[in-house]
Amino acid sequence: MIDYLTNRDFLILMAKMFSIFGGVMTALAYTTLLERRVIAFVQMRPGPNRVGPMGLLQPLADGLKFLLKEQVVPTNANVLLYYAAPIVSLVPAILSFSVIPFGPDLKMSDVSVSLLFVFAITSLGVYGIVLGGWASNSKYPLMGAMRASAQMLSYELSLTLSVVGVLMIGHTLSLAELVTSQQGTWFGFIPRWNIFLQPVAFIVYIVSAVAETNRLPFDLAESEQELVAGWHTEYSGMKFAMFFLAEYANMVTVSSIATILFLGGWNGPSFGPWWLQMALPTVWFISKIFCFIFAYIMVRATVPRIRYDQLMQFGWKVLLPLAVANILITSLVVALS
Amino acid sequence: MIQILFFLFAALAVGAAINVLAQKHVLYSSLALIVMLTAVSALFILLQAEFLAVINVIVYAGAIMVLFVFVIMLLNLPADPAGEDGSDRLRWLKLIGIPLGIFLLLMVGATVWNVSNSTNATQMTGTAQAIGQSLFTDYLLPFELTSLLILIALMGAVVFAKKDL
C-alpha cells in the first residue's frame, strides 16, 4: 500500500489530477464572468466591472457570497433528497473530466471506451435535476424537473446517434485515439478534421448538445417567465452554486467532446522551442473549447426561447431522423471504400 | 487494492438491492436500484469488461431508470400503504419469489461453472470489438430476434397510447 502511494506513476497521476481539477474549476468560475460580461456587451451595458480590475475578481466574490449565505430548506421539502440533489448533479459533471485528453500526455486515464464513459456519466446528471425538482415539493420546480427529464431523454438519443458516424470513420471508442486519427492534412492545407467528413453529424451534435445542457434557446426547464427558475427555484447559497457549476461543467464537457470528435482535439500547428511544443496542443485544445463556449454565450444573448411542443417536435422529427440518415449513409460509404 | 474495491462495490450492490425491497416509498426503491446498477457496473470494470459496464450505465441507469423516476414523479405516488392495515396483497407473490431466486442462483452457478471449465479467456474479452464480433457471428439470430421483440413492444406501446390510430 505504502509502495503504491509513493510510486512515481501514482504521484504523477495525482499531480495531473490536481492540475486538471484545479484548472477546470477555475475555468468554470471564469466562464460565469465571461458569460455575464459578453451578454452585457451584447445588450450595451457594462456588466460586472467593480470587483478587481475589469471585474476579474467577481467569481471570487460570488464564491464567497455563496459560501456565507444562509442555508434555507423549504418547509415541506424532502430534506435528504433536497441536500443530495446538487451533489448528484455536480459529481457526474466533474467526473467526466477524468477521461478527457487535454493534451498528448495531459489526461488522467485512457479507458478503451472513454467516449461511452463520458456519455454514461453525463446521463446520470439528469437525476440531480429530477430529484432537486421533486424534493423541493413545490410546483414550479416539479414542472421544471419534468420538462428537463423529458427534454434530456429526447435529445440524448440524437446526441449519441450523431457521433456514430465519427466512430465508424475513426474505428475506435477511445478519445485519445480519435484525436490521433485526425492528425495530418489533406492537400497540405485542409486539416484532417472530422467536421469536413461529417458536417451533418456536427450540426446535429451541436444542436442536441445545447439542448442537453439546458441552455437557451432550449432552456425550457428553467424558463424564468413561466417557471420562475425551474428546478432550482427553491435552492440558494452553495447548493444553488453547485447546480450552477454542474451546468457550466456540462457545457465544457460537451464542448470538449465536440472538439475531440469533430475539430481534431489537440491537433494544431506545432513550432518553437521544446517547452512551447509541449504546451501548444493544450493551448489549441483550450482555444477550440473557448470558441464553443463563446458561441454558446452568443446564442444565449441573441436567440429567443422556443416553445415546448416545438422543442419535442424538433428533437424527434428533425434531429433524430437526420442522425439516423447520417449513420446509414456513412456506413454505406465506409463499407464501399 | 482490487480486492478492497471488489468488496466495497459488492457490499454496495447487495445493500442497495436489499434496500430496493425494504423501502416503502417507490421513489426510494428506484433510487436504490440506480445505486445497485452503478455498483454492478463498477464490478464489471473490475472484471475488465469496460464496454459492458458503460453500456449498463447508459441503458439502465441513464435511460430506463430516468423513465421510472419520471413516471413516479408524474403520478406523484404516495408511500406504499400496505402493511399498516395488515392486508398485504402481494403476500403470495413474495413467497413465489424465493424458489425463483434459488432457481436463478442455480442457473448462474451452473453457467459460471461451465464457462470457467470450458473457455480460455483471452485478452480481448470485454472490448467493444470482441462483443461486436460475437454478437454478429455466434449470436446473430438471438440478437436479431431481440431487436424484433423490442420493435414489437414499441409498436404495442404506441397502440396503447393512441387508441384511434
Structure report:
The complex is a heterodimer of chains A (337) and B (165). Chain A has helices spanning 2-5, 8-42, 58-68, 79-95, 114-124, 126-135, 139-162, 164-170, 175-180, 194-197, 199-212, 224-227, 237-262, 274-302, 308-336, and strands spanning 185-186, 190-191. By secondary structure, chain A is mainly alpha-helical. Chain A has one domain (69-336). A two-stranded antiparallel ribbon of chain A has the order 1-2. In chain A, a hairpin with a 3-residue loop joins strand 1 and strand 2. Chain A starts with a helix and ends with a helix. The mean pLDDT of chain A is 84. With 165 residues, chain B is mainly α. Chain B has two domains: 1-78, NADH-ubiquinone/plastoquinone oxidoreductase chain 6, subunit NuoJ (Four Helix Bundle (Hemerythrin (Met), subunit A)); 127-165. In chain B, helix 1 (2-22) packs antiparallel against helix 2 (26-46) and helix 2 (26-46) runs antiparallel to helix 3. Chain B is globular. Chain A binds chain B through residues 1, 4, 111-113, 116-117, 119-121, 123-124, 126-127, 130-131, 133-134, 142, 145-146, 149-150, 152-153, 156, 160, 173, and chain B through 1, 27, 31, 34, 38, 41, 50-51, 54-55, 57-58, 61-63, 66-67, 69-70, 73-74, 127-128.
